[in-house]
Amino acid sequence: MVNEYPVAANAADLAADLVAAAVAAGADAADVLYVRDAATQVSVRLGVLDDVQRSDGEEIGLRLFIGRRSASVSSSDLSKDAMRALVDRAVAMAREAPEDPYAGLAPAELLATGAMPDVDIDDGGAVGPAELKARALEAEDVARSVPGITNSEGGSASGSRATIALATSTGFAREYATTAYGCSASVIAGAGGVMQRDYASHSARHLVDLEAPATIGRRAADRTIARLNPTQLPSGRMPVVFDPRVSAGLLGPLIGAITGAAIARRTSFLLDAMDTQLFAPGIRVVDDPHRVRGLRSRPFDGEGLPTAARDIVHDGRLTGWIADSASARQLGMQPTGHASRGIGGSPGAGTTNLHLAAGTLSVEALIADIVLGVWVIELIGSGVNGLTGDYSRGAAGFAIRNGQLAEPVAEVTIAGNLKTMYRELVPASDLLFRAGTNAPTVRIDGMTVAGA
Questions:
Q1: At CB < 8 A and 24+ separation, what contacts does 190-197 make?
Q2: How many angstroms from the chain centroid is the CA of residue 364?
Q3: For residue 127, which of 131, 143, 201, 426 is within the disulfide window of CB 3.0 to 4.6 Å?
Q4: 420-429 per-position pLDDT tens digit
């Protein structure tokens, strides 16, 4: 590895200096987020270099308050003149902004002050374009070499390093660095009107943890060939089994519905679900920002509050909301350390390394009694109503017949209501941590399947 992506020096000091300038210019309070990100991505197709992309930039975002009025501005020009102009523009904007009774920084007494947790998300190095090209070529070459593969959408590999710093006028000024690496392949099987495509990919914080390109390529090919010649299932109510590739998506609507903003606006299908039995007893949904080498691990949240592992769902019961400071004030609660933000605008609330805990049944036992069902490997469209919990998605995968995976199926629609789906959800024991949000294979009985 070569040190292609240096960590920005004194990023927290740079952010703190801009906070001080904002206060000196008349702001009552301010915070600054600084991000430097350097990345390289190489794409190949049919064994030939297709594209090389390199980005290396830094941005800084200033949010300031004058009373209960606030403004947010950002810049990629970090010269002294640009920073002075940024402060002046933000102050002028804030003075004209409407008042927000809930606006403000996180409470100073709640800020992270102890030693930052070591989440090991920076391996200290990077990969150059030549190594990335070799990885992308190997992944695609292995996939294309599998009998039955007829074409390719390409292979890719990437590496990046970022520095994130946050400073506030309440005395917080900290930074951390991350690295990220990825590799993928996408290929096509069949010809004419019976072509199918699929892909495989993997991402990791440390290069040493990244799957071998050959493993990724072989998985992409096997998945693609398995989907050839799909049929349609008859319509009806039946068990639906969500492959780990898609089961984690069932957690997205859950988190969206329990954010402080959704509860405060009363736009959540879980408004009355606090401390209720949302899932079956024994089910756990865990958010863990301190998972070592986790893809979404972080030592502090977007407002400088400490982060900690938490059961979002414990023994099937919803434990509470997740809230940034503004929505917490609106709800009369304390912020939960889940603030998430970008360079521009105010923080919202979100999770980090989220997972549905593994169950006790093997995958084979989970499906053993299914006479007719569908195993879903791909979902199409959004189809989730956050206000009512109604769920309807296009799907593709495999039929389940007499407890065994059978022929591939496509062009089916699965539907239900998330409250009912969560109550019926049964997880298998095959949980793996491969993404920011993870779940094992999941079975949900009684869903409506629309097929032929």
A1: 190/148, 190/150, 190/228, 190/229, 191/150, 194/228, 194/229, 195/150, 195/151, 196/224, 196/227, 196/228, 196/230, 197/153, 197/224
A2: 29
A3: 131
A4: 999 999 999 9
Task: Compute φ and ψ for 420, nearest 5 degrees.
Answer: -70, -40
Strands, DSSP E only, in 114-216?
149-168, 173-189, 196-204
Q: Alpha-carbon distance 309 to 22, whole Å? A: 34
pLDDT of residue 191: 87
For residue 47, give the nearest of 209, 187, 220, 148 by alpha carbon: 187
pLDDT digits (tens, 9 = 90+) for 207-222: 999 999 999 999 999 9
In one letter, which amino acid is 218?
Answer: R
Mean pLDDT of 177-193: 94
Question: Tell me, what amino acid is at 363?
Answer: V
300's tokens = 């502090």
Instruction: Report the length, in residues, of the chain.
Output: 452
b/e code 286-311 from CB counts within 10 Å (16+ = b): bbbbbbebbbbbbbbbbbbbbbeebb
pLDDT of 5 > 90? The answer is no
How high is the pLDDT of residue 8?
53
**What's the CA gap between 30 and 300, in Å, rounded?**
18
Other CB atoms within 10 Å distance of the CB of residue 189: 23
**pLDDT tops 90 at residue 4:** no
Rounded CA gap, 68 and 323, in Å? 19
Rg for the chain, CA atoms, rounded = 24
Question: Which residue spans within 243-330 are E strands per DSSP?
Answer: 285-287, 310-314, 317-318
Provide the residue type at 70 as one letter: S
264 phi and psi, to 5 degrees?
-65, -35
- With bands split at pLDDT 50, 70 and 90, how would you rate the model's confidence at 441? very high
- Which tops the pLDDT comparison, 378 or 2? 378
Closest to 51 measured CA to CA, from 146, 204, 153: 153
State the virtual CA torsion across 248, 254, 255, 261 in degrees, nearest 10.
Answer: 160
Q: Which two tokens stand for residue 329?
A: 């004030």
- Please tell me the predicted confidence (pLDDT) of residue 408: 97
Q: What is the pLDDT of residue 101?
A: 95
SS3 call for 168 = strand
The amino acid present at 254, given as its one-letter code, is: L
What does the pLDDT read at residue 304?
97
